[in-house]
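Handout, page 2. Input:
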Amino acid sequence: MNTPVAFSLRVNASPLKGAKPVARQSRFDGFLGLSRGFAALALGLAAAASFAQDKPWANMGRDATPAEVKAWDIDVRPDFKGLPAGAGSVSLGETVWESRCASCHGSFGESNEVFTPIIGGTTRKDIETGRVAALVEGAKSTAPQKTTIMKVATLSTLWDYINRAMPWNNPKTLKPDEVYGVTAYLLSLAEIVPPDFTLSDKNIAEVQQRMPNRNGMVFYEPLWKANGKGDVQNVACMKDCAVDPKVHSFLPDFARDAHGNIQQQNRVIGPVRGADTTRPAPKGLIGATAAATVAPAPPAPAPAASKGANVNSLLAANACTACHGVKNKIVGPGFNEIAAKHKGRADAEAYLVGKIKAGGSGVWGAVPMPPQAQLKDDDAKAIAQWIAAGAK
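Output:
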């Protein structure tokens, strides 16, 4: 670093007439003045840097608290890191299954008309080898279709999915011991564990060694290998690629709402997706310019209910529209069908409240309706009143 130069001022040798001689300034005074100048310059530069770094979003939000992180940090890895302590027996799992799961997946995981089977298609030999023979390339499968237990390789995947996404109508409500129990029940149905088994965080790694397709996850580089060579040459455009605007497949207009309005069939957990299938298909790509291509659908008016309750909100919050459309059947009958069936019934409101809260089966076919015990009495009554009044 260079040493600052000290300046001094001298009296002018030829002063103007009448001017007083200028007193000589000491070297110390000059050095002090220059130092003050450097200090002011440094402060100015620091202020400028601070201003430049002060982005509009710099002070937005806050760090998540440990409790908030813990509430969302629920994933379970294949090495079972993240698995909570707990245990559940096959017997406990069967009890939970019948009350919370069987309505969609069948009493023994064989499913019904709602979802494909979870259990089936594996053999004791598969448990020994760790590779489901029916899935081996070129093998002739004796299973009518591929079940979950045939495909899943890691037990952590099964536990994690049940824990975060089930039951379908009320996810994340099972306690850890109940998840262990349900998982144990499924494993017993597949004859992976005995009927009197209790699954826990202490023995789950041992059970992993009996998963029928544990050796089914094979990594090929770059993707698959044929005769020792990868089938992908990576010659496609990877940078600044042109966008292909051509639509290669589409759903015919007459079939867009075959399953009701998809936009109204989303669960309240997780990101909301689904096209408004009551409107024509968009003419362009959906993305950043979607607003200019397809105008957003106006919100549907909320049906009236007693005491000012918003029935649309109640139906969405409790995932009722995942199984029932307002004017069409999805899994269960449409609300308009229920209203028509009980039209003129004197005790329609009380009857519907009971069905909503307790669930039931047989009235509309083989698919049972799970009980909605989480609904408050007033909310169940509001929904029942709306249906009894015509579901309009």
